[in-house]
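Changelog-adjacent note: as of this version, every example in the card shows the full chain rather than a window. The one below runs 148 residues end to end.
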Amino acid sequence: MPGCTRSGYGVNPRRHARAGYEIVRSEGLEGFTSSALDDIAAAICLHPARPGAAADGSLARRLRALPRARRLAAYLRIADGLDAAHLQDAVIVEVQKTESIICLHVACHEASPGLVRADRKADLWREVFPLELQFVRTVRRPAGPRGC
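Full-length structure tokens:
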């Protein structure tokens, strides 16, 4: 398998999670074990607003029982929310962590709905991780040497 060259969204935007799941299951991804592929496919299937909505009932129950897939899906849901307008303009420029909170400083267009959507889609994160997640809109920092 040379790797997955299609995306679920490109194949079927309305059912992109199910399409993505099927692509990964049928085409695979180069360099990943079968166990990792199972988790990746499950995470893709679990990332919509209603986790498991892309799967039939029994498949959805099996997928939700996979802790690693749920953690991967939590990240995917946040990324999906940050790119809510499909502009690919959101960049995480800083991450701060305290004992109980992770704060993501995100540079994106002022009118972008990404931060609100990402916060809404962080529901799965809040179920599977013990740390609260906060999003802060910030300005993009110019590229420069590390430590500046």
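Structural remarks: The chain has a mean pLDDT of 79.
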